[in-house]
């Protein structure tokens, strides 16, 4: 009926392994296909190709949390992608399982509080009981899993673009090796119709320098239009995965007022963060930018009024009050207003944003704060403030800008017209 990814760090933990085995067996009996990586991933190695594919395509997931899992960077990445897909609206069932004596406080302390883990029992139940409690939840998994999944759609689009390069198998293999795809998967690049999806899945999480080099290898085998589309799709992949997910509102309801604080210096950086978070989904997300001025005697009121005018004009093409009527489907889309402050916002700035949210309770405001971040007392004055982490350096931004310029210039470089 569906593919179920099981995230775990059970190796060396007999109890966790027993739970893992019984859940896998139970899923198979119910007609599901469990996706389980039994091999340990040594520190410093790239994420396994199979795991990337599984977390990006699965229909449901079980996250087994023991002490090792809470400390595992791999489990953290798996959880991040799963919750990223959910935040984008994917019909994805995610079931967290606390093993042993772990508490929800332990999960929160490990930075995985978004799982909202449920402790199935305060005592240490047998593995069969835990597995049965998990398997009961799969009655919630519908036969029809159709629904919007921008991450999977983005990967599918990339795979389609890369089909052009299949005629040059050597370049495909070189690009795959640059992306550190395991040798065992290389024959599939040209041997299967969906072989290029291997590259596309890896591009989801590839370090930006490897992504750029891989695209440079493939470019001579691609048309100018395809290169441009790939470059546009990949330009924002330099943004940290966890920071990108934090850009999205919580799943399960209409958009709500949020203030995102990004210590960015260049204005295009904020757009990259939203593109990375939404996978360039123009149907469900809309982004507009404005400045932080004016600054007169009424520092709060003037700012709020200027931003109110900007919202009406930029999002709804309503410059005069007579045209200012919100469409009935305003809550069906998520609206981001990027305000380029370029310095640490003060309390007046925060109060002006609060007035703006009083008018537009569904608006997400992304503020670029320059090289600094607002003081804690200022952050408290924003509605649902999120400080995007890890913090940026100007060098990281400048490197991304130059890399994106080179990607955009690839067709001209190949033809010698650059």
UniProtKB/TrEMBL annotation:
Record InterPro entries: TIR_dom, Toll_tir_struct_dom_sf
GO BP, one annotated term: signal transduction
Short name of any one Pfam family annotated for the protein: TIR_2
Domain TIR: residue ranges: 1-162
Protein name per its UniProtKB record: TIR domain-containing protein
Organism of derivation: Streptomyces filamentosus (Streptomyces roseosporus)
């Amino acid at each position: 009926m569906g593919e179920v990814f099981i995230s775990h760090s059970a190796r060396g933990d007999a109890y966790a392994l027993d739970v893992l085995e019984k859940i896998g067996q139970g899923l198979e009996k119910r007609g599901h296909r469990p996706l389980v990586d039994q091999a340990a991933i040594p520190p410093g190695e790239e994420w396994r190709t199979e795991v990337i594919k599984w977390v990006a395509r699965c229909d449901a997931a079980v996250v087994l949390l023991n002490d090792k899992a809470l400390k595992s960077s791999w489990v953290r990445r798996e959880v991040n992608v799963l919750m990223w897909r959910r935040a984008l609206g994917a019909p994805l069932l995610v079931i967290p399982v606390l093993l042993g004596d772990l508490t929800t406080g332990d999960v929160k302390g490990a930075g995985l509080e978004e799982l909202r883990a449920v402790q199935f029992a305060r005592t240490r139940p047998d593995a069969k009981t835990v597995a049965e409690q998990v398997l009961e939840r799969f009655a919630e998994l519908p036969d029809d899993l159709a629904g919007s999944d921008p991450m999977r759609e983005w990967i599918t689009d990339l795979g389609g673009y890369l089909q052009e390069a299949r005629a040059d198998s050597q370049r495909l293999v070189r690009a795959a090796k640059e992306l550190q795809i395991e040798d065992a998967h290389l024959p599939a690049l040209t041997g299967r119709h969906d072989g290029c999806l291997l590259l596309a899945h890896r591009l989801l999480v590839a370090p930006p320098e490897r992504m750029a080099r891989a695209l440079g290898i493939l470019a001579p085998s691609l048309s100018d239009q395809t290169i441009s589309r790939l470059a546009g799709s990949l330009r924002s992949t330099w943004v940290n995965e966890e920071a990108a997910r934090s850009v999205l509102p919580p799943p399960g309801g209409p958009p709500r007022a949020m203030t995102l604080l990004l210590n960015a210096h260049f204005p295009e950086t904020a757009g990259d963060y939203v593109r990375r978070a939404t996978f360039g989904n123009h149907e469900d997300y809309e982004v507009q930018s404005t400045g932080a001025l004016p600054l007169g005697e009424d520092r709060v009121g003037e700012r709020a009024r200027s931003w109110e005018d900007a919202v009406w004009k930029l999002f709804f093409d309503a410059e005069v009050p007579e045209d200012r009527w919100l469409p009935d489907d305003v809550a069906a889309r998520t609206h981001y207003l990027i305000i380029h402050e370029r310095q640490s916002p003060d309390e007046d700035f925060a109060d002006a944003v609060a007035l703006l949210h009083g008018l537009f309770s569904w608006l997400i405001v992304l503020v670029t704060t320059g090289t600094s971040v607002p003081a804690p007392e200022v952050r408290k004055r924003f509605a649902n403030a999120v400080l995007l982490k890890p913090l940026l350096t100007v060098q990281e931004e400048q490197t991304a800008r130059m890399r994106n310029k080179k990607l955009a210039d690839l067709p001209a470089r190949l033809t010698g017209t650059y």
